Amino acid sequence: MGKEDAAREAAAELSSAAAFGAPCWVSLTTRDLRASQEFYGAVLGWGFRAARFGDRFSVALSDGQPVAGIGAVASEFQIAVAWTPYFAVTDADEAAGRVRERSGTVAVGPIALALGRAALVADLDGATFGIWQGVLPSSWPAWRDQQPAQLRLHSLDVFEAAIFYGGVLEWAADRPGACEVIYEHDEVVLRSAGLQVATIAPGGRRGAPDPFERPHWDVRFNVDDMDAALRAVRDNGGSVVVRTPFSPDSGEGPAATVRDPDGGLFTIVPARPRP
Predict the structure, then answer these.
(1) Torsional sign, CA 211, 34, 27, 247
(2) Most CB atoms closer than 10 Å: which of 10, 168, 203, 269?
């Protein structure tokens, strides 16, 4: 890339401050980058390109569009292999301070990366998420609008979780561009720019030995063929945790939560019809 191209790309990038409080990315922390690429390429049909964070990172692509990141840093930071949603913040140090003030945990960071600062933190129930201060790529608005990754928090107390995240991420703040929080039945729906971007739902069991049974952020990816994707999971060393049929009462499903060969949990759901 020439200097002029790099300058145009930098100019097209957005600041996390412009999207504060909203999900801005999802990333897999893993031990083996190549093995993860092979598994997710087979299961989800992704391609990959190098990321600007270094040779331990890559960006997953679906139909040429960025979907998620993979970073082979689980061993370095001594953290679990897991899918993690990242939320945009104006100041990572201040957001990390708000996590501590509300009895959450700061596990890693904030640390400086190529284009900003990031921290890996946990809420009151131990559900892990990330915060990001820095530039967002020009493809971010399309990532938000098309939602190739959907987010659902399984929480012990939906109302308490909404208060925690609202305080940390400045949801429903009296500032232009703040995310909107809506209570619907037993769930909390988060909207950014009028779009539903995350949900908080009842679920989880404190202290459960299996990460699937504990409160956690569930990252969901679209597939065109559920049966084929589940076969690919098994054929490539993963396992199916639970498969949920469509529920006419809640409108949820069908879905299948699976583990990759390294233990990373994620959920696959049928792709929505294209307009």
Answers:
(1) negative
(2) 168
The pair phi, psi for residue 169, each rounded to 5°, is: -105, 5
C-alpha span between 106 and 96 (Å, rounded) = 7
Token couple for 132: 């990001």
Measured at the CA of 23, the angle between CA 22 and CA 26, to 5 degrees, comes to: 170
**Rounded distance between C-alpha atoms, residue 131 and residue 17, angstroms:** 12
For 103-150, what is each residue's pLDDT tens digit? 999 998 899 887 889 999 999 999 999 999 998 877 788 888 888 999
Q: Where are the alpha helices (DSSP H) in the chain?
A: 3-12, 33-44, 74-77, 92-101, 140-146, 158-169, 226-235
- The residue whose two tokens read 């939320």 is 87
What's the residue count for the chain?
275
- Residue owning tokens 């498969």: 243
* Cα dist from 48 to 34, 44, 53, 134, 145, whole Å: 10, 12, 14, 23, 21
Predicted structure pTM score: 0.89
Dig out the tokens for 69 from the structure.
């990141």
